[in-house]
Amino acid sequence: MTLNRAAGEVFVLKVWFHPESPYARRILCFLDWNKIEAERIPVSLEQREHREAEYLKVNPWGRVPAILDGDFALSESLAILRYLVESRKLHQWYPQGLRERAVADQWLEYVSQHPCRPFLDLAWERSMATRFGGRTNPGAVDMALKRLKRELPFLDARLAASPFLAGSTPTLADVALYPFVTLSSEAGVDLKALAPNLLAWSDRVAGCGQA
Ligand SMILES: N[C@@H](CCC(=O)N[C@@H](CS)C(=O)NCC(=O)O)C(=O)O
C-alpha cells in the first residue's frame, strides 16, 4: 500500500475499501451510480492493513473507507459522500434548497443514527464474526434485533408513501442506508415479511446507476 504518487502519474481519485464494509460500500455505490472513475484499493482488515503506518496517513483512525483526491485525504463515509457531491457538482443527490436539504439531512441523520447499526450488528453476530475470527456476543443479537424492529416500521411507512427517503428522487440518505439493508440476509432479517416497502425500495436504489 503506497500513498505516494510517482512523478508524472496522472491523478485519479483513490478509494480504500473492504468489500464487506457497508461504510465503504456507501462510497463504492456512489462512485458506480455516478460513473466516477477511481482507483479502488482493497484494505485487508483480516491482515490488519488498516493499522499500518502507511494507511494511517490517509485515515488516522485506521478504518475504511478513506479517499485521496489529489493531495486531499478524507475519512468518514458521510463526509466523503458530501465532499463528492460538492466537488463533482452532483447536487441532485443532496439538494441545495434550504428545506429540501434539511429533509435530506433529517433522513441522513436518522438512518445513520438508528437503523444502519443494528443491521450491521446482526450481520456481524450471525455471519461475519466467525469469518473475521471474532467472537459473537449472545446478548448482542437480542439487543440489535430489538433496535431494528423498532425502526423498520418507520422506514416501511415512509417508503410506502414516498419512492425514496427524502422524496421522489434518491439522495445521500438512500446511499447511506442501502449497503446496510443489503446485509439483511446475513443479518437473518426477513425483509419481505417485516418491511416489504423497504425491500421494494432497495430494488429501486439498486437501479440508480442504470439511467
Ligand atoms: N464512521 C465510519 C465507520 C467506518 C468503520 O467502522 N469501518 C469499519 C469496517 S465496517 C472498520 O474499518 N473497522 C476496522 C476497525 O475499527 O478496526 C465511517 O462512516 O466511515
Strand order of the largest sheet: 2-1-3-4
CATH topology of the largest domain: Glutathione S-transferase Yfyf (Class Pi), Chain A, domain 2
Low-pLDDT residue intervals, each spanning 5 or more residues: none
Q: Provide mean pLDDT, rounded.
A: 94
In terms of quaternary structure, the protein is single chain
Overall CATH class of the largest domain: Mainly Alpha
Overall shape? globular
Helix-residue proportion? 40-55%
Strand tally: 4
Biggest sheet record: 4 strands, mixed
Percent range for β-strand residues? 5-15%
Small-molecule components bound: glutathione
Describe this structure in words.
By secondary structure, the protein is α+β, with helices and mostly antiparallel strands. The chain has two domains: 14-89, Glutaredoxin; 94-210, Glutathione S-transferase Yfyf (Class Pi), Chain A, domain 2, CATH 1.20.1050. 53% of the residues lie in helices and 8% in strands. The protein is built from ten helices and four strands, in the order E-H-E-H-E-E-H-H-H-H-H-H-H-H. It has helices spanning 22-33, 53-56, 77-87, 98-113, 116-131, 138-161, 172-181, 184-187, 191-194, 196-206; strands at residues 14-17, 39-42, 66-69, 72-75. Strands 2-1-3-4 form a four-stranded mixed sheet, with helices on one face. A hairpin with a 2-residue loop joins strand 3 and strand 4 (72-75). Helix 5 (116-131) packs across helix 6 and helix 7 (172-181) packs across helix 10 (196-206). The model has no long low-confidence stretch (mean pLDDT 94). Bound molecules: glutathione. Glutathione (GSH) binds at residues 21, 23, 45, 50, 62-65, 76-78.
